[in-house]
Amino acid sequence: MAATARLVVQMTPEEKRALDSRAKRAGVPTAEFVRRRLSASDDIGENREEIEALLAALEATAPAVLKSVDDAMASISAISATLDTMKVPS
After folding, report:
1. Vertex 5, ends 4 and 10: CA angle to 5°?
2. Are 11 and 22 in contact (CB under 8 A)?
3. Whether this model's pTM surpasses 0.85
């Protein structure tokens, strides 16, 4: 789509540097970064219900995930302790 209109937005030099920096990290020109951000905000609104459902699912699984991590850490500690007893003295 060819650009058909121009928008001038005034901002402080610090705001411009921050915007340019974010665009550079995204690997796109500043104008493209702004266009993408505007488009992305519309996508969030259109998909709010799905996003909220996904967040709820993540929240619901968090305790099980954390328990799995705790169990894995306990197993690692037990294995480490066993290995420590098996070390040959120098």
Report:
1. 155
2. no
3. no
